[in-house]
Design brief:
The protein has 241 residues and is mostly helical. The protein is built from 10 helices and no strands. It has one domain. The protein is globular and about 40 Å long. The protein starts with 6 loop residues before the first helix and ends with a helix.
Length: 241
């Protein structure tokens, strides 16, 4: 669905980006988890838009909460992300759009299952590096790189979680964008719609700041999870209709 999207579809994308950004800024993840399934459902060629917007959103969070970054943890995660990014770019280059859409849905469902089952890995160097690798592969191939890092860093809270996740995703998203550009997956439509949806992302950042200290993190994660799972189910059903 390149070139042009209808006004209702654009309004839907704007609303999802705004809501996803509120979650991203408030709890450290959410933009990719919510927006990627919806974009893959209504405008598959624009999935890289999520990465482009996520880069800008995480940069803004880092500017606001950067003093709380866990540099050691982010460093090990980024080291692991490198091979993951390469593998993810290869998947984008080799898999047809339908299989990539199913990968998006599968990543969301896997993240939800791990969260519901209460999987809480200890944030050792090895675990963080492996999570970074999984995040790189998933984030590059599907624009959803948050679940592995949310699992391994779930003991962090507040500004430390937001800033460490944002520092990792800023550098990691730039890696993924370079790799996707190298395989021809970032095109003019991606850049154009990123610019058009940027105001929705900016509004999400502005709304999230006063809400961050008031939101119940557990409930916010639960809402984000339910919405993401609904999007994944719709995306999966759409591939077989």
């Amino acid at each position: 669905m390149g070139g042009q999207v209808s006004l209702p579809v654009f309004a839907l994308l704007s609303a999802v980006v705004l809501l996803g950004t509120v979650f991203q800024v408030s709890i450290g993840f959410g933009l990719g988890l919510l927006a990627a399934p919806v974009i893959a459902l209504v405008a598959p060629s624009l999935v890289p838009v999520v990465l482009l917007l996520s880069t800008a959103v995480t940069a803004s969070v880092l500017l606001l909460d950067g003093a709380h970054v866990n540099l050691r943890g982010a460093g090990w995660a980024l080291l692991g992300r490198v091979p993951g990014v390469i593998a993810g770019a290869a998947l984008v280059a080799l898999l047809p759009a339908r299989w990539l859409a199913l990968c998006v849905a599968g990543v969301v469902v896997a993240g939800v299952v791990a969260s519901v089952r209460g999987f809480r890995p200890a944030p050792t160097r090895r675990a963080v590096a492996l999570a970074g690798m999984a995040s790189g592969l998933m984030g590059t191939a599907t624009s959803i790189g948050g679940p592995p890092m949310a699992l391994v860093w779930q003991r962090m809270t507040g500004p430390e979680l937001r800033s460490t996740m944002s520092g990792f995703f800023l550098a990691g998203s730039l890696m993924s964008l370079v790799a996707l550009a190298a395989v021809g997956a970032v095109h003019a439509d991606s850049l154009r719609y990123s610019a058009l949806l940027a105001p929705a992302a900016a509004a999400g950042v502005l709304l999230a700041r006063p809400l961050s200290d008031k939101l119940n993190v557990g409930r916010a994660r639960a809402v984000a999870t339910v919405l993401a799972l609904a999007g994944a189910i719709l995306l999966t059903v759409r591939q077989f209709i």
